[in-house]
Amino acid sequence: xxxxxxxxxxxxxxxxxxxxxxxxxxxxxxxxxxxxxxxxxxxxxxxxxxxxxxxxxxxxxxxxxxxxxxxxxxx
Length: 75
Description:
The chain is mainly alpha-helical. It has one domain. It has helices at 2-17, 22-44, 46-64. The termini are far apart.
């Protein structure tokens, strides 16, 4: 998926380089390339972020349980 993203940024960079002035080139690159690509990568990355968060929660629950092996001072 990242190869497609890199290719799209390359194409939009070349489109921006052919614009008449700098402002139009920057706007072309940002509005046709970087902003839509960032949104697309964020949306497609949502399932991976969800899986990573759930695995962290499972690990935190397993590590955080008190098994009684830690001796504490009586109160």
